[in-house]
Amino acid sequence: MPAIRKIRRETSEISCCLKYLLFISNVLLWLAAIAILATGIWAWSEKDMFKNIAKLSSIALDPAFVMIIIGSIMSLLGFMGAVGSLRENTCLLAAYGIFLSILLIAEIGFCALAFVLKDKGWIKDQATEGLKAFIRHYREDADQQNLIDWIQEDWLQCCGIDGPKDWDSNNYFNCSSIAIGSREACGVPFSCCRRRPQELIKNKQCGYDVRKEGYGQELSKILYEKGCVQAGEEWIEHNLIIISTAVIFLMFFQILGICFAQNLRADIYTQKSKWH
Would residue 243 count as lying in a domain? Predict the structure, then answer.
């Protein structure tokens, strides 16, 4: 029996199932990351962000920049996991596990911070400042314009930060801009307008002049009067279970990736020890 057990230990091999499961999952991650990174770089080049340094003042709010950062992190992670598992490279697998661990710790810290500060208004203040920047630069950056239009029209069905009046902080929609000939003065973007029944093509001029005197109670039939901050809070409350489940699943797969990488490294070291 001891001899049989010894032979079994010596003929043990690296788990092909573990190796190729880690490889395939990280190849898919890497391909998705390349697509996100390429889209972000293309969007930046279209806006001449690489040449216009003045635009970098609001870089953190730029959707294209966010895509570049996310794509870069994901591609690096996918590369280390795919190559490390395929080539049985223990250094890359160790770096992959450490990188995943850092991301996991950062996510846990962010969730804990959000839970602690949710009643202190910090998150609401950050969202408010972000929306203020989006409103101010609405006509200056196509990506930010598309993002806030999507937030107002498709996601939260809201208008402004606390309501339509917040669009007064944009030079084009400010009521005083009537004097300089802005046709959008005292109005709001079309994304603030309620979609009419059976409306196939939305009227892009539906927000013109709606903040001028005379609309009165008719305004509620034309616009979303709820601010996006309040609408966002209500959306989170209604979808808290779904959000929590998604976060738990993400963390679970990260933990699984860390465990797979460490187990594969252990198998590789076991095989290398037999060569000596």
Answer: no
* Inter-residue contact 158 to 227 (CB < 8 Å): yes
Q: What is the pTM assigned to this prediction?
A: 0.80
pLDDT digits (tens, 9 = 90+) for 148-173: 999 999 999 999 999 999 999 999 99
Considering the domain architecture, whether residues 185 and 230 belong to the same structural domain is answered as: yes
DSSP secondary structure string for all residues of 2-55 = HHHHHHHHHT----HHHHHHHHHHHHHHHHHHHHHHHHHHHHHHHTTTTT-GGG
Among candidates 191, 129, 122, 114, which has minimal Cα distance to 156? 191
Q: Tell me if 133 is assigned to some domain.
A: no
Does 242 reside within a domain? no
Nearest C-alpha neighbor of 152 from the set 164, 141, 165, 143: 164
Among 123, 238, 206, smallest CA distance to 131 is for 123
Give the number of other CB atoms < 10 A from CB of residue 144: 21
Write out pLDDT tens, residues 25-64.
999 999 999 999 999 998 888 876 655 555 555 666 788 8
What CATH number should be reported for the domain holding residue 148? Answer: 1.10.1450
| DSSP bridge pairs for 193 | 223
68 and 164 in a common domain: no
Structure tokens belonging to residue 124: 């609401």
- With CA atoms as reference, report the closest residue to 272 among 90, 16, 84, 8: 90
* Rounded CA separation 25/94 (Å): 17
Shared domain check, 29 and 82:
yes
Domain that holds residue 221: 139-234
Judge if 255 and 214 occupy the same domain.
no
Q: What's the distance, Cα to Cα, between the start and end of the chain in Å?
A: 25
The DSSP 8-state label assigned to residue 193 in this structure reads B
